[in-house]
Amino acid sequence: MCSLAKDSILNFENDSDFDFDKLPKKITILFVSSKFVATMKSKPDQVEKVFILEEDKSRVDNQERFATGKDLIFLLADAIYRCYNKEAKAYSESGDMSSANRKKEEVNRIHSELKKTHQRFFRRDSTINTSTSTLTRVIWLKSKLEDDVEMKRLINLFDEIISSFSVFANLSDLREYLHEHETFAHIFLIIDTDYDDLVVADFHKRSNIKIVLDYRNTDRISFNQECLDIINQASTIFLATRHTSTISDNTSDLGINHRGGYSGFVRTYEENGYTYIVIPDYSGNRFYQSLGNIETDRVAGVVFPCFTSGDMLHVTGIAENIYDDEAECIMPRITLLTRIKLTGYVWIKEGLNLKLIGPEQYSPYNPPIRYLAIELEKMGKPSTVSTRNAKLIEIKKLTKLISRFTFELDEKVSFKPGGYVILDFAHLIPQTYQHMNNNNPQSLNDDYIRTWTISSSPPFNLNTNTFDATNQISCTIKHLPKGTISSLLHSQSNDEKSPLSCKFLGVGGEFTCFDNTNQPPQKLLFIAAGIGITPLLAMFEALSRTKQKTDIVVLFSGRGDEIDLLKDFISSPLVSNISMFDSTGVNTSKSLQVFNRRIQYDDLLNVADLMNRQVYLCGPTQFMIDITSWLNQTGLKSEQIKTESFFF
């Protein structure tokens, strides 16, 4: 197997010392028992990932827990495939296509050969009494928690896969064995490349455990800000419910289930002196144990853990399930939720003996955070269901993947340049139940409602110095291969006999360069990445229509033909400078500066008269975080930096 992946697997030779500290700085994958994991007080620096051999097959998920050793070669193949593809992508983005192609060739060869090895490794040939697998032995370092019964189960786990199973009770005996015996058949896998950052929960002894607040069996209580912070940071909660039997059959019991989402997926509000917790229901296994218990016995408890501080917030209350229109009145776009009226809570500081030592990774199945109707109203965002329609009347292709779609509305609407529109396509998409969809995880909890920037400007009346209402809006939308709605739109054409029609939910937005008197700043800096330029297109069109004397500098990060999105900027007298940053290195232009790299801090410092400009920033989340940080470092005031988020 080493010959299949020369620089990706490292063997321990006969004279190797079984000591992680002496290993080179490579990435190690451990295959161990769940009990062994429980004894690990800390994770060696070289160990990147721990995969668990699980005797309880009901817990096997083919990702981190394995019922048999047969999965391990598949794991190795997939791990190398993922790692090498990541390296190939990095080489490609840096312009080193030779190295990228070499890595792609290697990964395809290794992946194919390892799959063949798996087939040979476990194939039973009727003409041969033994198989290749009889050459393989397992060496197991026994943890203090593992008894003889468990070890027997582990040995049975590898039955007919290996020739022998050697167990050692301590590290010194294991080291001595490795020194004295041939170990060519014992394969220790070390992947020689970088993985993405992984979440690791470390066992952490807390030294200052104490109950900070204790409000039990009290109706009219509120959360303080510290408790709200614990709720808002939680991406994992545990919901406890109760089933009380109405007959004497001893079937009454308590139950607990996990709920998860992005941090902040659980919302809270106060009404008439009471505090409420709202938990939206997402697509799951459709067993509904907790919801069923709540229907018959309305007591519930919730634990909100904080893996960073170790704080635990225990909450009790009276729960109810709310459905359909009533649910949407509380939390728009959600048709099933659980609402808990608070009756008590206990905040325990440092009560959790686990500590997060790596960045948090979210499930790809998580839907966006859904806000309460009262929260949306405070944000000035639509919160009610609409029966108005929007009909697609024109499509204009701008790049290979980006087109401009113009919709005609049932009635005229008013909005500021840079605002957004919310459209509902749910009735156009056939919806069937799926528990899992690894090819497109986001589709499971997709409500098919989209919020897009309006990339067109409303008409401007020079006589009244106002933007008029209009019944036509345009959205510039990029086709995403796995995007259900973008794929639907990009499959349309201008000669459709029955133009596509969707529901229009509303417009809004405060991300605009125009004040209440429709006057813009004299000096502007537009910074955008990719399709994030769309609100700036609307502002630019409006500035051109109002004939205002403004000075605009544009910094745009894009790839390939996304340079075509800048066409109108290039010829405009309003724009004093345009710089495009393309890390793919494929763009050149005589009409504007093109840098074959990403935007850097110095590029902001080089903007003429930067300190007197109002900045409008839009793009991917990390892009905006980085740019905002750099802008703050330049000395710009926070009120000079405007951004927009469409996660609502």
UniProtKB/TrEMBL annotation:
Pfam families: NAD_binding_1. Residues 385-514 form the FAD-binding FR-type domain. One of its GO terms (molecular function) is oxidoreductase activity. Transmembrane segments: none annotated. It comes from Adineta steineri. It comes from the Eukaryota. PANTHER family: FAD-BINDING, PUTATIVE (AFU_ORTHOLOGUE AFUA_6G07600)-RELATED. Gene3D superfamilies: Nucleotide-binding domain of ferredoxin-NADP reductase (FNR) module (3.40.50.80), Translation factors (2.40.30.10). Coiled coil: none annotated. This is FAD-binding FR-type domain-containing protein.
